[in-house]
């Protein structure tokens, strides 16, 4: 199968809202008046972001999900995406599964594939996603104010727990592993929550490298500090809380590692002023996405992780970095 | 050097026109009223699109140039781009050269880097480029009409000639190789020509896989055929014509192969009605880019390559396909 037959079979679908989709030199989008276009790109590499034996359907889901998560963090409504794909060879069942997983999530968010590129090479998936947000209403990293509450959505740490088990570092019972693995491989981008938080959250980002490291980006961009309550964060771990997974009794150190520096959570972390507490809970209900307060923004710079007694914890939490040793 | 220090050192620059650039979850663009957004993505893989020992400066240029060439083919004015980069390791001189080459071309076209992603992996460069075009004025592949002239810009075939020499298939004198290699490694996206052809060209695309194959996309999208004059095309080969390179006497078969199925030309191929001939030449002068008529669109389907006597040539010209054997 040649390049153009491959595109036609697996990736070319009529567009609904875009002016022009797959098949010309460029795709064409017509943004609505008063809307800004939000753009994000993520590149996924085998062995780095996913295992070689991952189900292609879940990989198709995840490749788009991590991009939609960036739109969610900006409060943008998904519109369209482009897909660039380097493939070692044309593997029909793989392409079938990958495209099905990707399009199922795309359709759920009304986000259409408008263009891309395919080439031969080591497996590499690069998606660029486009969303729209009313001018001036995008959620940025730079708006956190001292006194603001710090929230996280959903559950943290389960993706990292699955990774530790899959790497053979820890043992999880099969049912717990399956539940945690679901969180690692099929994250749910919090798009409805992101758009519901427009005008309410003072800052936001999505959690991809771990809470402590990612929250650090908000602190840096907003020139503030924060106090993070470790036990409130741990309580958000589904595997511990018996949430979507199975309640487990895990060593506290492992819980802390997974929740504070886990990575691959794809939940939102956001801040909001104290007078917005009701509005935050209303947005949470409207989006059918739980949110929990896990700390507070401080004028004093730096991030303090404190225990239930308010004592600072000594340990440092390294977030994921692609180029650190 | 970590991921964020790498981005800050080599890729983070203040944006001029975008609402928000590198450093948040999304970039934000504010399209002007009445404008549509043109989007294109190209992925470049080592060993496939470039040699391992290519000068990183020329690679940075080419990675952006092939994307700008897609905007040119749509008649869009470049605005911004995102860059996703998988790197085997952090190589400071390589990153310095790559970013310099990329930004030099970006600055020449007023196109700013607004976001991206970096990860560790086999070298892979994926750029997504954004341009604007007045609604309804984009140049598409689907507008060619029987009787239209077929034009190509600049010179064809020299990039393929360089590739054949670099692969050791043919010998070129050093000066000729240097000139041809310049065309292979540093293509000039025909942005000024593309925008000048709005309202004049009936269809357009950029030549990346070879004239015969690429023109086939116009024929398919427009449901027409074409007659292509082989000698007119050969006359556009700089190495033969003594253009930017050095005049060479090459076997006719090699000339035909390079010009008709060469690939990597990054020139524009477009069609225009006969009554637009003066307008086409005016656009060519305004854009300071030569254009030449090399054939005609026919109602009869299929592509006939003819010699100087108008006789159909028997040989088939295979264009480049990433997944063909």
Q: How would you characterize the overall build of this protein?
A:
The structure is a homodimer of 325-residue chains. The first copy, chain A, has 325 residues and is of the alpha+beta class. In chain A, the strands form two sheets. Chain A has a six-stranded mixed beta sheet, sandwiched between helices. A four-stranded mixed beta sheet of chain A has the order 2-5-3-4. Chain A contains eleven helices and eleven strands. In chain A, helix 2 runs parallel beside helix 3 and helix 4 (158-166) packs across helix 10. The longest helix of chain A has 19 residues, at 56-74. The model of chain A has no long low-confidence stretch (mean pLDDT 90). The first copy, chain A, folds into two domains: 3-134, 60s Ribosomal Protein L30, Chain: A (2-Layer Sandwich); 149-306, Alpha-Beta Complex (Phosphoribosyl-aminoimidazole Synthetase, Chain A, domain 2). At the A-B interface, helix 1, strand 1, strand 2, helix 2 and strand 3 of A face helix 1, strand 1, strand 2, helix 2 and strand 3 of B.
